[in-house]
Amino acid sequence: MVGNLLDLQPNKVSIDLTQYSIVIMGDTGIGKTTTLMKFLKELSPDKEPFFLEFEDRYQNIPGIMAVKINNMSDFKSIIGQLRNPALKEKFSCIIIDTLDKYEEFCERYVLENRDAEILKDVGAYGEGSLRFKSALRNIGVIQSIGYPVHYIAQSSYSKDFDTKKESNSLKLNKNTFSYCREAAYLVGYMYAENNERFITFKKTDKYPDLKDTFGLPDKVNVKELKSIWTKSVESLGGEYVTKEKTIDKTIVEEDFEKIKSKGIELGGLLASNGRLDEATAILQKNLGIDDNGNVKMFDSLRESQLELTKVIVMELEELANKYNLLK
Q: DSSP string spanning 279-301?
């Protein structure tokens, strides 16, 4: 619910780096998982980053908190457990490792349940693609519980035969790419140099998928990423910098039955004060007419129509306020 606009304050940028979703890409075996684990522990020393693993390579990493995801029931079970407030005190964030294997996992889930070989064979009107996107959005469910989500991805090297131009990009289809990259604040390419790990977030012809929201240097030693990133945020925000978290994707669950009851109560109040026709007009505008030509009533609303129910209740409340019927 939008608050009172009279209380609106200028936006502040936070130096709490834990809340910013990032994507780390790089070649196989470069040490992305270990490096990201150490960096995230540096950001939240009192909590652990929790890795959802879609491949087996994590098993040689000492101290990692990780679970291998074998099937969708495993994934759903973990999402259900993550709702436990005790786990929010234990884990600082969730990491999808790797993003391209997660993409394969979602696609395989759709194909196996529809006995198809490719998404185009799943059904008409792009049904396969829609079901794939639905599976992909389980990441959004994790975010709605209140966890920042980060991603590790494999890079794909290519070289143009004619121009000899080289590039490293994400090995993802356009749906996965757009869904995760757009939500991320940083997309970086990690590489090794003189036994050190460096990362760049600058989008170039060589790295077309990268993203830098904060104006970081072209080349950053991962060991210095926290301090350099913090300084970039401070310089970006100037006087509008805060230590408090400013991003919260947690979705507060609302009581549908309570909201629905309020609407029924408002409808009764308006009817008893001679405003039944106007209240009915609000219902007709939002709910329409049933098969018998009657205006649909509140009883027809279902929990999946929470937002619609809230809109109707707000309009009924505005009508009641118009005639000074609310004490």
A: HHHHHHHHH-B-TTSPBP-GGG-
